[in-house]
Amino acid sequence: MTSDTRMAARWLPVVLLMIGSFGSTSSALMGQDAVQQEIQRLMGQELTEEEIVNRISTLGLSRDDLRGRLGAMGYDEILPTLDAYFDRVEGAVNPQAVSQQRSNELVAALSEMGLITLETDRELEFGRDSIVLDSMAIDSLGLETGLNVFGRSIFEDITAQFQPLTFGPVDPGYLLGPGDQVQLFLTGEIELAYNLDVTREGFVIIPDVGQVSVNGLTLTTLRENLYSRLSSVYSGVQRGPEATTRFHLSLGRLRTNQVFLIGEVTQPGAYQMSPAATIFNALYSARGPNMEGSMRSVQVRRAGQLAGELDVYDYLLRGDASEDFRIEQGDFVFVPLAGPQVSIEGEVRRSAIYEIKSGEGLLDLIEFSGGLSASAFSGKIQIDRILPVDQRTSGRERVIVDVDLDDLNSGQFFPLYDGDRVFVEPVLEERTSRVAVTGQVQRAGDYQLVEGMTVQDLIRRSGGLRRDAFGQVAHLERMNYADSSYALTQINLDSEGRANPNPLLQDFDRITVFGNAALSTRESVYIGGEVKDPSTYEFSEGMTVEDIVLIGGGFTANADPLTVEVLRRTDDAIMSDQISHVIHVSFGPGSVPFEVNDLDETPLALGRELASSVQLEPNDRVFVRRLQNRRSFEDVILTGEVLRPGNYSRLTRDETVTQLVARAGGLTAQADVGGFRLTRDDLTLGLDFEAALANASGPEDIRVFPGDSIYVPEYNPIVTIEGAVEFESRARWVDGLSVQNYLDQAGGVREDGDRDRTVVTYANNERRRSGKFLFFRSDPEVKPGTVITVPEKLEVDGGFNVDQWLTRVLSMATVLVAINGMSN
After folding, report:
1. Which helix H or strand E contains 307, and what residues bound it?
2. What is the mean pLDDT of residues 604-608?
3. Residue 658 belongs to a domain with what CATH number?
4. Does residue 73 surpass a pLDDT of 70?
5. What CA–CA distances, in Å, run from 170 to 215, 219, 277?
6. What per-residue confidence (pLDDT) applies to 27?
7. Is 211 exposed, middle or buried (0-12, 13-18, 19+ CB in 10 A)?
8. In the chain, what's the furthest Cα-to-Cα distance?
9. Beta partners for residue 354, in sequence order
10. d(CA 319, CA 677)
């Protein structure tokens, strides 16, 4: 909300109060158009079409309900506009277009009825954020606890669920007044119906009857008064069964009252309310008290006097609306600052911040919170308290107070102070009056300790011993309360669970009944290698090698069923250097599901035992070896300038590059034969495919392996010159031009360039380097697609340099020749 808008929102109640205080009755009862124009002028805003759709969709009213309310209020001319917006809410394909003026009229009518607010979505969002920020400065209790103020959430969402009736039946105590519409129906000898509007002077005019005063009357009182007036015109109207003409009264349209909401409310201002509206309805229309507002003493002032007061807690906690009376024209609903606020959290049903009145204490707060939960510990209710100013001393400003709820339940009153934080702790997790039995009994677990219970009693309550129980010894562990340690007592048991000795049990005693397995070690066997689930498995008597292979999930695709080894520990492994010996076994076809294909079955006759006949012993280790000649069907990837690129599986182990390309339909016309690249294990290898074609199956026609990737580039007659040259560039390839020719085309080598270390990279990713011996330099051949790279010079400290050595030698030779000439 902008600063101007905020200022307008603040001054709006004042403007309306001035109108109500100094104006006449007619000016106080501002027309609907005038009120709406004033609000629009002060707020300076309009709702967008999307915002209007959002407001209508959240009202909770059907199309017919809302049409009935608007019609009863005399807004028949805007019903087509309402229908157009409901079409949008219901997702109609082509809804009727609505002008901004008609939209504003609909918004004004809904606002007059208190159904929507005039704030835009953005301002509503900003307003909520602003409220939160304000509370951060003021509501320190909410910041410390992280709790919400009780009751505030009910006012946060704008719906029509708490809006009063604007048409239809009213309660018998409803008092008629200006603006109401009374419906009169005559039936019998005559059939007549009249819609009678109550004038500002408080009367209605009935045709042929005349003026009848109705102001301040109920429908029941009016009905009694009409008997004499109607019977003077219609002779059939009488009391009792002799009447030949009867009449009925009903209310059509209800009037609206202008009510002012001031004080600590979220949206203060003037509101047009139904005459059936109560204090709570008005409070809800203004979105409730703000962060500083009270919910315990909402006041209604009428003609300068206090007409009544509403405690919202009665409404929310007990459903008691006896003090929620109807508000009248010109009433002021005033929300004062909140009283003392305290919080309660922990083991209560509704943790929140509550406002307390004078005379309310800790028991009342617990009642507000819904009472203690089943797990609450009533012996210690702890209060974190900031002492009132008059109770503080130096260094003693905040204290902890513990309260025993049992003392309060006896009638003692415990007062609370503003800012108190009440914590209700849970009961301890430790469970008493219990004993436990574990191990080989039918139903192990915790049991209630009853007076006189013995070890034998507990075993019988747990269902007795299991079949595999070790029926000789059980352990009784008893807690030493001095240090929480346990002392162990051995108990002898027979097969029926009778104990000797059979001591009485104490709280927290634990009995452990062992099984026969506790006296032995579980034996196991291991299977590894080419099986699907290699692991250690429990040994069973009679288990064979074939059984353990099946338990291990069977063979993998690479398993050699004719090469299975069993490693078995020797009996004298401790005294001998030989730890174990190996048993070789084989699987006959069909023993374990496996496709033998063309495997040689001759090893079956080479002294190996069949796996189904070799029984395993504890701790045996079985290994299924890998079949070396098992073919792998992993693809070779062929991409680039071939007729049929894609993934290819090898036909033979010796398939070569030329054979694979031939299977792919050969090369395209744009293929660069000299640019073949083969990538294997993430490393690229340059291929001389021309040489491979010239000598198929020769050294250049290499074998392909699973996972290889072959790329054939497009012919590229361009040479790239890069690195430490004057102008990095590209040049057209010309047969016969040398590396130096292309470097000259790039402006030559820069001063920091190292010409002697020039690198030539061919299209197949093969690299060669320029060489130099004394004064002679040799450069690689330049082919189409070549990249010439001149690196920068390396800064080397010391070391041997040929050029410097030759210079020094020539200098020394010159000096020697000169000396020799002088001597001659």
Report:
1. strand 305-310
2. 38
3. 3.10.560.10
4. no
5. 16, 10, 11
6. 34
7. exposed
8. 175
9. 342
10. 85
- Render pLDDT for 454-504 as a digit per residue (tens, 0 to 9): 999 999 999 988 888 887 788 999 988 888 888 999 988 887 778 889 999
Render pLDDT for 259-280 as a digit per residue (tens, 0 to 9): 999 999 999 999 888 888 889 9
* Same domain, residue pair 77 and 97: yes
Q: What is the pLDDT of residue 614?
A: 83
89-130 pLDDT tens trace: 777 767 778 778 777 888 877 776 656 655 544 444 444 333
Is residue 60 domain-shared with residue 157, that is, in the same domain? yes
pLDDT for the residue numbered 274: 82
Which helix (H) or strand (E) segment holds residue 129: the answer is helix 121-138
Report yes or no: 710 and 639 within 8 Å, Cβ to Cβ: yes
Is the domain of 330 the same as that of 364? no
Overall size of the chain counted in residues: 824
Task: Tell me whether residue 758 is in a domain.
Answer: no
Identify the CA nearest to 474 among candidates 448, 498, 447, 442: 498
Query: 353 and 385: one domain?
Result: yes
Verify that 552 and 620 share a domain, yes or no: yes
Q: What tokens were used for 746?
A: 């790039």
Statement to judge: residues 298 and 379 lie in one domain = no
Q: Write down which residue in 477, 496, 519 finishes a domain.
A: 519
Residues 406 and 511 in one domain: no
Residues 6+ apart with CB under 8 A from 392: none
Q: Whole-angstrom Cα distance, residue 222 to residue 229?
A: 11
pLDDT bracket for residue 11 (50, 70, 90): very low
Lowest mean pLDDT segment, chosen from 66-70, 368-372, 482-486, 594-598: 594-598
CATH code: domain of residue 189: 3.30.1950.10
Structural domains counted in the chain: 6
What would the two tokens of residue 314 be?
A: 């009665």
- pLDDT of 764 reads 85
Prediction pTM value:
0.50
Task: With both helix axes pointing from N to C terminus, report the angle between 100-112 and 79-89 in degrees, rounded to the nearest 10.
Answer: 90
685: containing domain: 636-712
Report percent pLDDT > 90 for the chain. 33
Q: What Cα–Cα distance (Å) separates residue 56 from each residue in 168, 665, 816?
A: 21, 70, 112
Which of 335, 354, 380 is at the close of a domain?
335
CA-wise closest residue to 106 among 26, 98, 396: 98
Q: Which residue has the tokens 């992280």?
A: 146
Give the end-to-end CA distance of the chain in Å, rounded to a whole number.
111
Task: Say if 169 falls within a structural domain.
Answer: no
Same domain as 618, residue 586: yes
For residues 672 and 687, is the Cβ–Cβ distance under 8 A?
Answer: no
CB atoms within 10 A of CB 803: 9
